[in-house]
Structures are given as structure tokens and as C-alpha cells.
């Protein structure tokens, strides 16, 4: 059974990814600041296949020890899904510096550091999959999400360059870029704003967390063995 570490797995897209991985026969190490009720219930239904390890991605200095602990306690990792993200929004000119720091640290710096330590073992084993969660905002922009968009653009740059670094070692690196979905992160956009985005999409709808989770599972699976350095968009045709 292949083991995959999923960050931000306690709710939203991370929880959907965890469910799909469990259904696909993977063993999942779920991380987050604290275990949610939904994740606890899922863990109880998948005894031994789902485990929780707490991780606060604001504490970048703790990541090396966390990565080492996970691999020592649970064995080698086949996959890493860098999903956790901070969704602080606001016009950049009035955004507090602490909020900017939080977005960049959680969304960009911490995934880079975690990939650094996990990819070492993957490269040594000669196989592995890293899937980073980006956003269409990295390419389209969105008013009020300047810092968030910058952090996701950094993730896409990481994906392409790291794919070249690790390809010769049998490790693929890809990203999934969802469009706007109805999750806690988009709570501030609910109502007319999200409906307007849905009306402009090719499918006249929003993608769901389950849609994006399916793309992640594909990139972790055998059918994506020759796919690396790719940004896969899942947005119901919003950017078509």
C-alpha cells in the first residue's frame, strides 16, 4: 500500500483528496493544525489506512523534524500533496503585513521546504509523486487576492523547476489549479459574486472539490507516469 502525505487535509479540498485516495487504496497521512470532526469520522471508518499528524505550516523551522518523524513512524512516502493554504483576502494597499507574511509562508515557503525534505527520500528510492495545489488566480489575477495570487504563482514556478530537478530520479512533480469552488476559503465570495463566476464559465457552473481531487488522484496514479511539470486546470471552463 503506497503512502501519501496530504497537508491541509482536515476540510475542503484536502478532505476530498483524502477521501479519494482512501477509495483508491492508498494509505494517507493527513496533516493540519488540529484534527477536524469530519477527518476523525473518516479515520474511524478507515482503520489503519488514515492517520493524522499535526502540522502548523506557519512554523517553517519545524518542517524538517516533522518530515523526518513522518517517514520514521510511517515508512517511506510515495506521494506528497501540498494542499494547505491560507486564503486571506483584501486590497494589497490596505492589507496588514502580518497577513501578507502568513499567505506567503503557508502557501509558498512551507510547501517548498516540505518538498525539499520529502523529495530527498523519494529521489533515493527512485520513485515518488509530488502534487502541488495552485489556483487559476496565479494566471488570471483577481481583485483582492494579490498576495494569494503571488503565492500560487510561486507554487507553479516550483512545480516546473522541481520537475526538471527530480525527473531523472523517477519523481514527478505536477500541480492542480482549481477555479473558484464553494469551500470555506471562498466563503467571502458566496452569493452573487460566485454565481457571476459560474455564469461566465464554459460549463455555466463551478468545479467542486471532488472534481479537483480526481485530478490529484490521477497525477498520483500509474496513468500519469509520463506526466511531469504540468499545471492541470480544473475550473469548469472559467479560463477557456
Descriptive key words:
240 residues; Rossmann fold; seven-stranded parallel beta sheet; 7 strands; globular
Summarize the structure in words.
Helices cover about 45% and strands about 15% of the residues. It is of the alpha/beta class. The protein has a seven-stranded parallel β-sheet, sandwiched between helices. The termini are far apart.
At the fold tier of CATH, the topology name is Rossmann fold
What's the CATH C level? Alpha Beta
User: Could you tell me how far the N terminus lies from the C terminus, measured between alpha carbons in angstroms?
Assistant: 37 Å
Quaternary organisation of the protein chains: single chain
Q: Which structural class is indicated by helix and strand composition?
A: alpha/beta
CATH superfamily: NAD(P)-binding Rossmann-like Domain
**What is the helical fraction, as a range of percent?**
40-55%
N-to-C order of helices and strands: EHEHEHEHEHHEHHE
Radius of gyration: 17 Å
User: What is the general shape?
Assistant: globular
Record field, number of beta strands: 7
Average predicted confidence as pLDDT: 93
Tell me about the largest β-sheet.
Answer: 7 strands, parallel
Strand content: 15-25%
**Poorly predicted runs of 5 or more residues:** none
The CATH architecture comes to: 3-Layer(aba) Sandwich
How do the strands line up in the largest sheet? 3-2-1-4-5-6-7
Amino acid at each position: 500500500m503506497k503512502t501519501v502525505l496530504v497537508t491541509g487535509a482536515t476540510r475542503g479540498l484536502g478532505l476530498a483528496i483524502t477521501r479519494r485516495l482512501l477509495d483508491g487504496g492508498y494509505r494517507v497521512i493527513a496533516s493540519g493544525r488540529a484534527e477536524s470532526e469530519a477527518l476523525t469520522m473518516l479515520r474511524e471508518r478507515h482503520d489503519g489506512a488514515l492517520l493524522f499528524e499535526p502540522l502548523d505550516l506557519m512554523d517553517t523551522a519545524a518542517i524538517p523534524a516533522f518530515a523526518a518523524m513522518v517517514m520514521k513512524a510511517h515508512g517511506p512516502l510515495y506521494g506528497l500533496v501540498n494542499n494547505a493554504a491560507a486564503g486571506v483576502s483584501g486590497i494589497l494597499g490596505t492589507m496588514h503585513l502580518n497577513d501578507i507574511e502568513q499567505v506567503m509562508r503557508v502557501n509558498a515557503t512551507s510547501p517548498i521546504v516540505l518538498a525539499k525534505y520529502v523529495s530527498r527520500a523519494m529521489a533515493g528510492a527512485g520513485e515518488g509523486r509530488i502534487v502541488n495545489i495552485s489556483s487559476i488566480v496565479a494566471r488570471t489575477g483577481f481583485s483582492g487576492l494579490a498576495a494569494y495570487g503571488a503565492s500560487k504563482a510561486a507554487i507553479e514556478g516550483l512545480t516546473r523547476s522541481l520537475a526538471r530537478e527530480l525527473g531523472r530520479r523517477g519523481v514527478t512533480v505536477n500541480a492542480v489549479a482549481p477555479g473558484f469552488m464553494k469551500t470555506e476559503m471562498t466563503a467571502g465570495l458566496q452569493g452573487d459574486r460566485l454565481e457571476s463566476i459560474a455564469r461566465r464559465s464554459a460549463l455555466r457552473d463551478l468545479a467542486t472539490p471532488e472534481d479537483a481531487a480526481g485530478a490529484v488522484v490521477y497525477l498520483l496514479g500509474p496513468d500519469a507516469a509520463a506526466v511531469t511539470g504540468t499545471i492541470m486546470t480544473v475550473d469548469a471552463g472559467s479560463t477557456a
